[in-house]
Amino acid sequence: MTVVTYAEAKPTAPAYATPARRMTVNGWAVVVIFLPPALLLFTVFVFLPIVEAGWYGFFNWNGYGRPERFIGLKNYGYLFNNPTFVRSLINNAIIIVFSLLIQLPLALAVAVMVAGRIAGAVWFRMIFFLPYVLADVAAGLIWHFMFDGDYGVPSVITTWLGIHPYFLLADKTWAFSAVLIVILWKYFGFHMMLYIAGLQGIDGALLEAAEMDGATPFQRFWHITLPLLGPMIRLSIFFSVIGALQLFDIIVPLTGGGPFETTNTMVSFLYFFGLTRMRIGFSSAVGVVLFIICVAFAFGYQRIVMRDD
Amino acid sequence: MTDAADAVRSPGRRAGGLGSIAAFAALIVLAVAVLFPVLATALNGFKDLSEFRTNPFGLPHVWMWSNYWSILTGYRYWQVLGNSLIIAFFTVALTLVLSAMAAFTFAHLRFFGDRFLMSYIQLGLLFPLATAIVPIFIKVRDLGLLDSLWGVILPQVAFSLAMGVLLIRNAFKQLPGELLDAAMMDGCGYFRYFFYITLPLSGPILATVAIIAFVASWNGYLLPLIVLNSESRYPWTLGLMAYQGQYMTSWQLVLAFITLTILPAILMFLMAQRWIVAGLTAGAVKS
Question: Which residues are registered as beta bridge partners of A59?
Fold first, then answer.
């Protein structure tokens, strides 16, 4: 904390109560000491890597020496001709659609129920939020056990029916639905909390007035609560999409991308087919595709959908 | 609004009657469905394998405390938790220090390029760490940080700076400007103002940023996966997967290990529930 005494010695400028404060030596000292550490770390580990991903994506490179074998856009060509990658793109899209059509409406319904004075509301909220604080890896492994054909829930049903064990995670038609169930279990509580926070900001007098005017509960919800929740819903859609695009941690312990590579996401494809095989150029190209989708979505969404929030 | 966990006055009045009974029943069913996997995991950790096969979802007939005891008395469990704690501690500490310093500059000082630099750091909000994971791996390797905890900590800090700077700067800006004027008038420089006035008044926002950075670091998997090779440096998320790989045929042990590794998160959540919920949701809303 030697900087404190250093600051004391400096003459201070007369204070003007204007937003634009005149720059002083003391002020410059703050800029020079306080800003560089954050800027340096950010540049080295966030900014440069994303620029380098764009660069490496043009090369056939195994990560050793310098990237020299320039192949232009070929990595991107390989990528979009790779059925596993196309499948993982589709899987990411399925997660988004599932989140918007199933997860968020469920979270909203639950939020409306537990925001009221229902018995045990605080407990319900806590229980529903709990999976969100658990690591994705642990959640994936817990559900790997839950879906297991010999030990999990299917085993109870197949034993009871007296039929052969059923391995959902090995069923290439339905394995991906297991991923969706885990996502629902783990994340709906987070969105519920966002909606509860939004519901708390709604003026009860509005709803009371509507009730006096004879609006039914459904009308009150549809015409008052829902529009007023708009900003929060748009925000939760944003988190939901960005989260869906980067999903990886659940896939590894749950399915490992299998069976027959039907349950990969873009990031798990990047890891299993690029990084673990040291195909640095190729996997950088996957990162670039993911980056472009994320940034295009974030910009477009904030400009178009969230512009009034 | 900041405390989502508090019992609140709802927009609707007491509904009463059949509707609320149905709602209550639906919530009970949902709560059981949400808790069931966690409880089944914890209970099955008490069984032996033969019972596990025949009775996967009942209470154990014989409670095998030894499953848990062998993990708790072993070295491995404490080592992975210790590694996670070290990583999370330094990630949170560095995130707070660097974000608060940068945020203070952006909140109070106007200089050439200040808005540009602020937007530059905000770029970090646009894309997740996974997009840049390959060059991060190369960078960490070239810096000689592969297989070291710093190779996990530094990129984690870098990726939480955007959120930290934004949240903290907004909070700093909301402190009354008269405070700074008065302090300047009395001959207090920016540095003293930062340490003696700004920071003590900013507890809640620093706690929010700390909670978000801690949870992200504690639960992190992808970054340690590509950076760390030695099992002695694994955080618990990697340790859990390694344990599962090794004891694949003894589900009951894996489940006991899962239970014990998620226990710290559950205990922390139960103890600091209001803070954690408020931190994670308010943080999301404000950034």
Answer: A70
- Between chains, do A193 and B281 touch, taking CB under 8 Å as contact? yes
How far does the CA of residue B98 sit from the closest CA of chain A (Å)? 5
B187, exposed or middle or buried, with CB in 10 Å at 0-12, 13-18, 19+?
exposed
Supply φ then ψ for residue A59, to 5 degrees: -120, 155
Return the residue in B43, B188, B190 with the most chain A beta carbons within 10 A, the one to mutate for interface testing: B190
Q: Rank A14-18, A48-52, B247-251, B272-276 by mean pLDDT and report only the highest.
A: A48-52
Alpha helix positions (H), chain A: 2-9, 25-34, 36-42, 48-56, 74-80, 83-98, 104-115, 121-133, 136-146, 153-161, 175-200, 204-212, 217-220, 226-245, 251-254, 266-269, 280-300
Q: How many CB atoms lie within 10 A of CB A1?
A: 8
- What tokens were used for A214? 């004879």
pLDDT at site B5: 40
Q: Which of A45, A187, A212 to mutate to test the interface with B (most CBs of B within 10 A)?
A: A45
Q: Name chain B contacts of A150, Cβ cutoff 8 Å.
A: 53
**C-alpha closest to that of A288 among A83, A53, A68:** A53
To probe the interface with A, which of B167, B191, B247, B254 has the most A CB atoms within 10 Å? B191
DSSP bridge pairs for A70 = A59
CB proximity list for B157: less than 8 A, separation 6 or greater: A41, A45, B91, B94, B95, B98, B213
The CA–CA distances, whole Å, from B254 to A20, A142, B47, B240, B249 equal 60, 9, 12, 8, 9
The residues near A51 (Cβ < 8 Å, ≥ 6 apart) are none
Please tell me whether the peptide bond between A259 and the residue prior to it is cis, using omega within 30 degrees of 0: yes
Answer yes or no: is the ipTM higher than 0.95: no
Q: Please, which residues 267-286 of chain B have a Cβ atom closer than 8 Å to chain A?
A: 268-269, 273, 276-277, 280-282, 284-285
Identity at B213, one-letter amino acid code: A
**For residues B134 and A53, is the Cβ–Cβ distance under 8 A?**
yes
Picking from B123, B126, B111, B122, the residue whose alpha carbon sits closest to that of residue B169 is B122
What does the block give as tokens for A166? 């059923």
For residue A70, the SS3 value is strand
pLDDT tens, position by position, for chain A (309 residues)? Answer: 233 333 333 344 444 444 556 678 888 888 889 999 999 999 999 999 999 999 999 999 888 878 888 888 888 999 999 999 999 999 999 999 999 999 999 999 999 888 877 888 889 999 999 999 999 999 999 999 999 888 888 888 888 888 888 888 888 889 999 999 999 999 999 999 999 988 888 888 888 888 888 888 888 888 888 888 888 899 899 999 999 999 999 999 999 887 899 999 999 999 999 888 889 999 999 999 999 999 999 889 888 887 776
Question: Which positions in chain B touch A199 (Cβ < 8 Å)?
Answer: 10-11
Within its chain, how far is the Cα of B214 from the centroid? Answer: 4
Cα angle, residue A257 at apex, residues A280 and B232 outer, rounded to 5°? 70
For the record, the structure tokens of B165 come out as 């700077």
> What pTM was estimated for this model as a whole?
0.88
Distance (Å, whole) CA A110 – CA A105: 9
